[in-house]
Amino acid sequence: MVSRAEILVHGSADDVAEALAARLMSRLVELQRDARTPQVALTGGRIATKAYQRIGLEGRSSAVDWSRVGLWWGDERFVAADDDDRNARQALTALSTLPLDLGRVHPMPASGDGLDLDAAAEAYDAELGQTVFDICLLGMGPDGHVASLFPEHPSSYADGRVIPVRSSPKPPPERISLTLEVINAAAEVWFCVTGADKAAAARLALSGAGPLQIPAAGVQGRERTLWLLDREAAAELPPNLGPRGVL
Predict the structure, then answer these.
(1) Would strands 70-73 and 75-77 be described as parallel, antiparallel, or unpaired?
(2) Is 190 exposed, middle or buried (0-12, 13-18, 19+ CB in 10 A)?
(3) Burial of 105 from C-beta contacts in 10 A (0-12 / 13-18 / 19+)
(4) I want to staple 147 with a disulfide (CB 3.0 to 4.6 A). Which of 74, 128, 202, 243 is the partner?
C-alpha cells in the first residue's frame, strides 16, 4: 500500500481545500467523457466543507454535468436531519447552487427517520447495493481514524459494509460508517489532511502501521490512493516515502 500512495503537499490548509475542489471537478469531467455517472463518497470536516463551498461557487461554470453525479457519504452522525453536525447537511448546503439530481444523492439516514441505529445502517447498506465508488474522499483524525472507524474500537474490526457505531470516542456517540471493505473497493481514495495535530498519524499511516491502531493505514484505493496534505500535516513524514513538494 505504501508504495502506491501519492503524496502532494500544499502550503496551507486553504490551498488543500482549493486543490481538492479543482481536482474533483476535473476528475468528474474526465469520468463523464465515457458517458458514465461518477459515484463519489463525500467526507465531512472543515477543509472538505470549504472545498464544497468552492465547488458551489464555481461548479456551474465548469464542464461537469451535475445531474449525472452520484453522491454518497462515508460516514454520518446519527442525529436529526436538520442538525448542523450532519456531514450531509454541511455538504448539501455548500453544493445547493448546483443542479444536482436529488435522486442520485444518497445521505445516510438521520435519527428522526423512524429507524433505530442498526436498522439505519442496514437501510444504507441496501441502498448502496452493488455501487462501487469512482472516488472516495476521506479525512483523518489526529488518532488516525477515517470515516467513523476508530483505533482499537469495535468499529475498526466490525464485519459488514455499513455498520452502526456506538460509544464513538468523538461525539456524538452514535454514528453510521462504511467499512474498509467498501472504502477499499473504490477506484480512487483521496485523503484530505491538514494541521500539525495530524502529523504523527499521517506518518504512521504512511509508514506501515497496523489498521487496528491507525485505521487510515488500512486504506488503499484499487487504482489510486492520493494524500493531499498541508505542510503542517506533512511535517513528520520520512524522506523514504518518495518525492513530494510544496505546491
Answers:
(1) unpaired
(2) buried
(3) middle
(4) 74
C-alpha distance from residue 243 to each of 7, 59, 184 (Å): 8, 32, 24
- Strands of 52-196 (E only): list them: 70-73, 75-77, 135-138, 162-165, 175-178, 188-193
Low-confidence ranges of the chain (pLDDT < 70): 1-3, 242-247
CB 180, CB 74: distance < 8 Å = no
pLDDT one-digit tens code per residue, 90-117? 999 999 999 999 999 999 999 999 999 9
Ramachandran angles phi, psi of 152, nearest 5°: 50, 35
β-pairing verdict for 75-77 and 175-178 = antiparallel
CA pair distance 54, 200, nearest whole angstrom: 29
Terminal Cα-to-Cα distance of the chain (whole angstroms): 24
Q: Which domains does the chain have, with CATH numbers?
A: 2-241 (3.40.50.1360)
Grid cell, residue 218, equals 488500512
Query: How distant, in Å, are the alpha carbons of 166, 180, 219 from that of 128?
Result: 21, 15, 19
Residue 194 carries which side chain, given as an amino acid letter? T
CB neighbour list of residue 215: distance below 8 Å, 6 or more residues apart: 144, 145, 146, 149, 150, 151, 156, 180
- Give the three-class secondary structure for 193: strand
Cα atoms in the 13 Å half-sphere on the side-chain side of 30: 8
pTM equals 0.95
Residue 193 CA to residue 116 CA, distance in Å, equals: 32
Q: Using CA atoms, how far apart are residues 236 and 202, in angstroms rounded to an integer?
A: 8
